[in-house]
Specification:
By secondary structure, this protein is α/β, with parallel strands linked by helices. It has one domain: 3-Layer(aba) Sandwich (Rossmann fold), CATH 3.40.50. Strand 6, helix 10 and strand 7 form a beta-alpha-beta unit. It is globular, with a radius of gyration of 18 Å.
């Protein structure tokens, strides 16, 4: 499964991403964590000092993989390739993924540098490699991808996660966090991406008023201060199993490339998705 973790800033996206990635890997699932946030919190949570090569510079390798020229539009890929073609053990993975532990690898989008500051390209352009990597990434049934996202709805609206199998929105029990969740859900629904909610930093899970029933609730956990998986509450570890099992049962197990095609079709028609 390819799962993007989204939500309001401060809701605990990076902590939940870290927990899911570690838990899946410790459960024996080959797992790829993708840090898609320029803050690179997930990398730091995993104890990795981010270093190049970063995904923000992978555009040339994405194009080369599909045999198109950098002068062409990335969506030309759709005309040439209709099947998933990246794998967990290919050259792209070996180039951009760093081993964290047994069963766990990490890719990092990268940080802001002189190129991103002065090139005139927006942040979306540097994340484009993720947009075209995820739909074409073929996974075995036991392989897992966890993506830690930028806060808010901007990258989701850009279509960065058209290629995921599901979106998990991390929600605190505050009005602002719930409002971001509602906005996120509208975008996910428009793109046809399965959408789920988990509560985080919970004290009382009986008083939650929102349009989506959460599929899980994570208790406030001191282990998130040190990011030592061994010290995570057993209830939170068990909740990971419950959430992943629920999503596995409630998502279509089909290619997501069609979402890119639909995005391109509406873009060509001048329709805002």
């Amino acid at each position: 499964m390819r799962i993007a973790i989204v939500g309001k800033g401060g809701s605990g996206k990076s902590s939940i991403s870290w927990l899911f990635a570690c838990h899946a890997a410790r459960s024996g699932l080959p797992t790829l964590a993708i840090d898609a946030d320029y803050n690179m919190d997930l990398a730091h949570n995993l104890g990795i000092e981010p270093s190049s090569p970063f995904l923000k510079g992978a555009e040339k390798d994405i194009y080369h993989h599909f045999g198109i020229d950098l002068s062409q539009n990335a969506f030309d890929i759709l005309a040439l390739h209709k099947k998933e073609s990246f794998t967990f053990d290919d050259t792209f993975m070996n180039t951009y993924a760093k081993k964290v532990s047994d069963n766990l690898q990490l890719m990092v989008l990268g940080d802001h540098d002189e190129e991103t500051m002065y090139s005139g390209r927006c942040s979306h352009a540097y994340a484009k490699s993720i947009k075209f990597y995820l739909p074409y990434l073929h996974l075995r049934s036991d392989e897992m991808v966890i993506i830690d996202s930028v806060a808010g709805t901007d990258m989701l609206n850009y279509g960065l996660y058209l290629g995921v199998d599901a979106i998990i929105c991390v929600v605190e029990q505050t009005k602002n966090s719930i409002a971001v969740m509602e906005s996120t859900k509208r975008i996910a629904d428009a793109y046809g991406i399965p959408f789920f909610v988990v509560l985080n930093k919970c004290v009382d899970i009986t008083n939650v008023n929102m349009s989506v029933d959460p599929i899980g609730a994570f208790l406030f956990d001191p282990a998130f201060a040190t990011y030592e998986y061994e010290n995570v509450m057993e209830k939170n570890k068990s909740m990971c199993d419950a959430v992943l099992s629920h999503i596995q049962k409630h998502i279509p197990h089909t290619s997501t490339i069609h979402r890119l095609e639909e995005w391109k079709r509406k873009h060509d028609l001048g329709v805002q998705s």
